[in-house]
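Notebook p. 47: complex prediction with magnesium ion.
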Amino acid sequence: MISFRNVNKFFGDFHVLKDINLDVKQAEVVVVVGPSGSGKSTMLRCINHLEAITDGELVVNGINVHDKKTNINELRRNIGMVFQHFNLYPHKTVLQNITLAPIHVLGEDKKKAEETAMFYLDKVGIAEKANSYPSQLSGGQQQRVAIARGLAMKPHVMLFDEPTSALDPEMIGEVLDVMKSLAKDGMTMVVVTHEMGFAKEVADQIIFMDEGKIVEVGKPAEFFANPQTERARDFLKRVL
Ligand code: ADP
Ligand code: MG
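Predicted complex, structure tokens below:
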């Protein structure tokens, strides 16, 4: 579903992604961990072309992301992204937040878009908040709306960049539970997170990044029990 081949990226002179090779299969959950500044967000953002790559090849669901001929809007339609800050429209209701893109981008009629929105709101456990405004919801509820909004576009892939980092501790679990159920339903997911419990339980592969490189790739059981590099051992000592 996603394949990086010798991908490099520079910000000016700064070599932020160094020779990245990564394959994510359909229905796989890949969890990306690593110290702050190691390039995790940048790698994620290359997948939906929020960042351009400098060289190499990146293919998502058969589409060559950085080919000049690629229609970026079409690409993004199939890739949902959830950020640390939920970025909901404050003056629109939950239902309007979710139906906006299906109506304006996919051209769905309002009634169908609302039915789809209610289906996903129910899935994330907050159907009763459909007519509330974001400010009336807790952080955990807002993040679940953001996930429902992504799902309403029926993407092939969901990307999560530290989706629980801005939440109060008591709300982290409800968001991780939604992500676990998505994984169980077979969604292809790439998740940047510091939630090592989630990584252990849900990941098919763990990617450990440091200084722009993928330093380790492995099954969670192997990675957590027996990290191969000093850098990964150091990192785990600090986060576990
Ligand atoms: P992570 O998500 O692992 O914390 P990032 O991908 O956000 O790391 O950043 C990796 C490095 O690239 C950091 O040193 C950061 O300062 C730098 N960086 C990120 N975005 C930009 C940008 N737009 N311009 C220049 N440097 C950037
Ligand atoms: Mg980041």
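Notes: The first strand starts at residue 2 and ends at 11. The two ends are 31 Å apart (CA to CA).
Next step: compare against the earlier run before touching the bench.
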